[in-house]
Amino acid sequence: MKFLSTLFGYKGWQGEQHATMSLSRQILLTAGRSPKMLLVTLWSSLLALTAQSVAQDYGTSPPVYPSPPGTGIGWEAAFAQAQAFVSNLTLEEKTQLVTGIEGPCVGNIGGIPRVGFDGLCLQDGPLAIRQATYASVFPAGLTAAASWDRYLIFFRGLFLGAEFKDKGSHVALGPVVGPLGRSAYGGRGWEGFSPDPYLTGIAAEETIRGMQQSGVQACLKHYIGNEQETQRNPRLSPSGTTIEAVSSNIDDRTMHELYLWPFANGVRAGTASIMCSYNRVNGSYGCQNSKTLNGLLKTELGFQGYVMSDWQATHAGVPAIKAGLDMDMPGSIGSSRDTSFFGGNVTHAVQNGTLDQDRLDDMVKRIMTPYFYLHQNEYPPIDGTEPTLNSDHPPYQHPFTLGASNVDVRSGHGQLIRDIAAAGTVLLKNTNDVLPLTTPKTLGVFGNDAGDLVNGQYFLTSAFQTPFGYEYGTLPVAGGSGAGRLSYLVSPLEALKARAALDGTLVQYILNNDLVTQPSGLGAIMPVPEVCLVFLKSWAAEGSDRRSLEADWDSTAVVSSVAAFCNNTVVITHSAGLNVMPWANNPNVTGILAAHLPGQESGNSIVDILYGAVNPSGKLPYTIALNESDYRFSDITNSTKLLRTEDPNAWQSNFTEGLLIDYRHFDYYNKSVLYEFGFGLSYTTFDVSDLSVDKHNATINPLPEDLPIAPGGNPSLWQILCTANFTVANTGNVTGAAVPQLYLSFPSVPSSIPTPRNVLRGFDKLWLAPDESQTVSFSLTRRDLSYWNVKKQEWVIPGGTFVMSLGFSSRDLRLKQHLDVVG
Ligand code: NOJ
């Protein structure tokens, strides 16, 4: 897999210019009763659950059975292979294929040598093959989204996938589109892309295509409504009652237009698998929710791959399987290796008639079809180092073939990593063109985010598990299973020193925030630098949500202190999510760069931007509000009362804001913001002109139903109904990339929840030389022009006039066109 860049034509940046816990316990308790009794118990539990959900204001989880069998649409030849394969297996072998076991990887399916099957190795995660040695650490999903560059996002997926494959890992546990980013405080928002479903949908699609073209299976996660870390799992109350995981209560329209939207893109892109989430959705656990799994995913979206559980997110056997779960990970119940909801229980359930053999066959076929489709029957062996890194040592219950250890899979991916990190850096302020730097005589570098790491290079260890991570060292990625083991890291200070040396620039630095904020803390700096660079960071990690949206480590005081001393202060943030910037309007803060989580090439990528080797072209994939309190509309559900509750069902998160998250909220309520969604400066300027709209001939309403459902849902939803054409020009003095953005304002829609004022429905990134212009077309599909009609249970194009607005951010809209689609 050495020459992917050549094969796929990656030219580098230069080239580019041109059921609940109680239900599960009942299953355990009812083990040994007759199958008929078991079914009665199950159904009554399900009905009770449904009744409980109906009573809620937000959404319901009605039962949807039976689980629709996969038919292999789009993967016909592989499906036939999977069918033949299944017909050759014993019942116990089928059970083995759907149940995780201990092994060398984070998740493992044991091999069956009798039929030449070597097993499956599942590894985290969305930005690196997490635990591996000699592997690359890519920019986070958030950074990729901030690039608004489909081409780079595709290559990120392709190169990531190649590293998984070369390490012998069949399934990459990513990308992430849930959390989508309902709350700015979400601890894992950075693993995914953007709170905008359209941008996230495209980023997921490109990532999945890239990954799977390299031969690895993608696992789109976490399905669905996984918008907070707090109480994501059940826990015991002080008196020993099981308090169930938070329930994300989402109304049907919001489910379709916001949270399900990017999953539809991912299914259409052919994702092999989907990971169901820890939380409950409308009262029922994500991994045994027949409405979301059988209904939305496997029926409405026509998903043909398999659903795997998040680790220990399975709370039952047969009910979860009937609700649509296909694979249990890691296969054990809690830390007890000898117990499983699946495994022997699945075998018994088939034997005693509780579970249809056909459903088990369907599970196996769903698992084996993508395997054959991606030719994984001929695959590199698992890197011999993996067992040590996973702390799961042989002997294993089933065989795994291990290959050489410490295989170097980095294959020169550093250049792409550097390019994406620069492309995902957003220039927010540039007073008097302080940037790009031109041979400054003196530079100051401040803040604990500028230097090298001092606590090690793998952010999963306990050294990083404080609410603020580690004090000293730059933040290339955040923590938890979405992190990566860094084989190297170029820190900002190191790269700046190297670049400054070319001009003989004097570089002075203080990396201790405590010192910087002391009254005479900057006394050692002499002379006062021409430009002072302040590096700030904000940590987040799986398992907890963020406490504050300001950067960590006394960041606001650090900026005031440096800015009081240096009237040309440029602030650079590395952060796991968005930051509020209380210092943004300080006149001495002349430059601001949101550099997100850049990965291993951090220092090089920021130097590329600071010195203008790369013209900034990143745009915010979220909104930066004026104040932290402005984000209260979608708070994480948490309170001292809930932390002490004895009510198993107390954790309810009602998504009352509906569709109005991020810019949709600020626009709807006409609120001023600091930097809006889609905003980002360049060292040049752009303009748009000549917007026109072509309508294509198509049956408009109702949605044609004669086409069979295909992955991604009714195929007519993807039909192009109109095209917006316009011209973009570079009106400045240097080459740069424009990101024209198209927003759509819907005519009035009959709905009990508010319709956003404007929604993103088109974007692209174009490199243009000074005075160069280019004509561009954005295609709008039926889905783009439809809302989810709850009564009709289908996508409907509203009558009336749409307004299309084109510009360079959600609030810099320069051209408008009116469009009547119906009639
Ligand atoms: C739990 C996380 O939620 C998931 O994203 C990850 O893939 C698994 N753990 C395995 O590490």
From TrEMBL:
Domain of life, per lineage: Eukaryota
Gene Ontology CC terms: extracellular region
Q: SUPFAM superfamilies, from UniProt?
A: (Trans)glycosidases, Beta-D-glucan exohydrolase, C-terminal domain
Classification via InterPro entries: Cellulose_deg_GH3 (IPR050288), Fn3-like (IPR026891), GH (IPR017853), Glyco_hydro_3_C (IPR002772), Glyco_hydro_3_C_sf (IPR036881), Glyco_hydro_3_N (IPR001764), Glyco_hydro_3_N_sf (IPR036962), Ig-like_fold (IPR013783)
Cite the EC number. 3.2.1.21
User: What are the entry keywords?
Assistant: Carbohydrate metabolism, Cellulose degradation, Glycoprotein, Glycosidase, Hydrolase, Polysaccharide degradation, Secreted, Signal
GO biological process: one example: cellulose catabolic process
Q: Which reaction does it catalyse?
A: Hydrolysis of terminal, non-reducing beta-D-glucosyl residues with release of beta-D-glucose
Q: Which Pfam families match?
A: Fn3-like, Glyco_hydro_3, Glyco_hydro_3_C
Domain Fibronectin type III-like: where? 738-810
Q: Where does the record say this protein resides? A: Secreted
Named in its record, the pathway it takes part in is: Glycan metabolism; cellulose degradation
Q: What class of enzyme is it?
A: hydrolase
Keyword check for Signal: yes
GO molecular function terms attached to this record: beta-glucosidase activity
What family does this belong to? Belongs to the glycosyl hydrolase 3 family.
Task of the protein: Beta-glucosidases are one of a number of cellulolytic enzymes involved in the degradation of cellulosic biomass. Catalyzes the last step releasing glucose from the inhibitory cellobiose.
The name this protein goes by in its record: Probable beta-glucosidase G
The source organism is: Cladophialophora immunda
- What lineage is this protein's organism placed in? Eukaryota, Fungi, Dikarya, Ascomycota, Pezizomycotina
